Amino acid sequence: MTNRIAFLNGQFIKEENAFLHISDLAIQRGYGIFDYCRTSNDIPVYLDYHIDRFFRSAELMHLQLPIAKPEIISIIQQLISKNVIPNSGIRMLLTGGYSPDSYEVVRPNLVILQHPLHLRPAGLFEQGIKVITHEYVREFPGAKTINYSMGIWLQQKIKESNAVDVLYHQQGEVSEFPRSNFFIVTKDDVVATPKKNILQGITRKKIIELASNHFVVEERIVTLHDIRTAKEAFMTSTTKRILPIVQVDNAVIGNGQPGQIAALLDKILEKEESVLLQ
Amino acid sequence: MTNRIAFLNGQFIKEENAFLHISDLAIQRGYGIFDYCRTSNDIPVYLDYHIDRFFRSAELMHLQLPIAKPEIISIIQQLISKNVIPNSGIRMLLTGGYSPDSYEVVRPNLVILQHPLHLRPAGLFEQGIKVITHEYVREFPGAKTINYSMGIWLQQKIKESNAVDVLYHQQGEVSEFPRSNFFIVTKDDVVATPKKNILQGITRKKIIELASNHFVVEERIVTLHDIRTAKEAFMTSTTKRILPIVQVDNAVIGNGQPGQIAALLDKILEKEESVLLQ
Question: Taking residues B193-222, what's their average pLDDT?
């Protein structure tokens, strides 16, 4: 255990003492939502977007935040001061609460944690990754719920396939990874990303904005067939930023090496962040 | 809070003190399985079936039970002695454990709870219930996972529709309720129940066995159209036993009254249980 401080229902406590009673609806019924943002040199990156999405997820899942956005920002600032983890991940979690009948949503429990950040492993960008595919759509694609049963269950298959992650699709139309969004670059240098059945990723949103200054960007249907003819593919997330994909199932992408446009967009995103954080 | 005793990871403790650390994979990722059986006059009903299914669910979800079946039976017997709740519900819950990276399944946490039983409300059997339908298949139909996000999320729609529950279907082929199985009786007195995309309910299994002595019973595809032409419909579960359904969406079933075959099967099931419990 560590000396980290966590926020639980109005109090700052040691994370090792942060417990929920077993009547909580997350434990009983897997019911809850969360969001996750990153700090860089003690500054939360795109915090407003993450908090807005946290509130949107709560509303979609009929959960009532017990406090308002400015208070959440203040709590996060206090956690940053207390914990002194300059480069961290901040997890905001809202559960269905201590339900007397193990079914009805009641007053939610709010937890905010700060952990050291696990960024993409060194060398992985330069190497690119292999992913597998699986037919699945999250139950509430627009909400960041805590339900990762499928992603976690597929970990065995991912490892057996010597892959790193799994790309979901429905009848050949791809959507997202359990924790990342997906992009391809076509032979004509169009940057395309799935529009349907996805979580609106913050990094995805930034990449769409930044890429639009240099390329044609399309939010549209992307099929497994599109992937096989793509020049590049990559995933985006808060912790990975951009990670090139060089193989999807048995299909090698482009020349089997990370693409130049993925590398360019990663540099542009890194620069934008460094300006924001100055 | 109450004075009830719960079992948590090898210890009997007061239920009000039964907490899980927020790193548990149920809280972080909604990852866990459970089972639920009933006691009647301090005797667990069909306990072997429930424990077998609990172990099957664990295996399907790649979770390792920390103890063997006889030990679980012994713990349940001890809970029954300690709590003195003759007619109770016993909930066995196994979570993904305290995961260091909030994603990898580790050593599971095992919780066993005993609560007073909430059987079907008096008069509900005689009145029958209205249900609505919703297109959805549980992610792991064969496993009793803790993921009830859809069932809980639909509670608002159920209440707005003056209904009691929601029947899942996929492209018109019905499967199950969030916590119950489904049966119809055709105009030709065939008792039919969906075969695919369902949890193998213990009460469903008993009804199939007992009904087979009196009627043709079919496990097969049941469509929304079949329901509209059915003479009777009912749900089965551990807590409800049989509950007649008199309306599905806007379709009134039969003459809008609970059916005679549902009533007969309920009596036969009650009798079988009373013999078992002697």
Answer: 98
